[in-house]
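One such given next:

>
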Amino acid sequence: MLTIAGTARCVSDLHLRAERPDLTRRFADFLAATAAAGIEALFILGDLFEYWIGDDDLADPFNAQVCKLLRDLSDHGTRIFFIAGNRDFLIGERFAAAAGMRLLSDLETVDAGGTAILLMHGDTVCTDDLPYQEFRRMVRSPQWQADFLARPLPERRAEVESLRRRSAEAMQGKTAAIMDASGAAIREALTARGCTRLIHGHTHRPGREAIQLPSGSAERWVLSDWDTGRGDALEIDAAGIRRIDLAN
């Protein structure tokens, strides 16, 4: 289990992309403030990028810019951890090394603020969305990824654009309940890891929820996305969890 003795921050679903420089500026300001506050650890819980087509695209000017922003924070002394999202699951060790961050598993238990906290992107507990879970299994398979990464970069970009369009179309036919996290899956994950706090993103439905487990009370914190006129971070220390509004 990772142990964070000082203050930690969590963000998710920034969806950074070259055509939204406002998001990059906000991210740069957030990282600068994180460094100035002496934050021990930053956890990025997936979808840092709108899409990532492979670490061999690191030379792209926009990707290199984001990488440098992260590296500067790491060099300042903040430990950076990353859990892959559904948009940037192809981020690998090459990018992580260049950015000065550590890749974590899909579900990670962290001791922060004196409490065992389960961190995840959030898509793994959206178990009622069966078509998405089937798609997730496909794109997370080593064979699919090897085949995709073997293709030229322009082909990969075109394929990602096609996948994004099809995903947007598919979402139009799904109910909000199906796309949200499953209560049963949340309770199962917390119980299996022996945690009483869960933090995740993915659903773009920021909030806090009290949860009752067989072992007692627990809570779920959901982070906001950054690209729909809002954005937040969670700050964790011995005093508890606080939500930081980053919309402005």
Summary: Residues 153-172 form the longest helix (20 residues). The chain has eight helices and twelve strands.
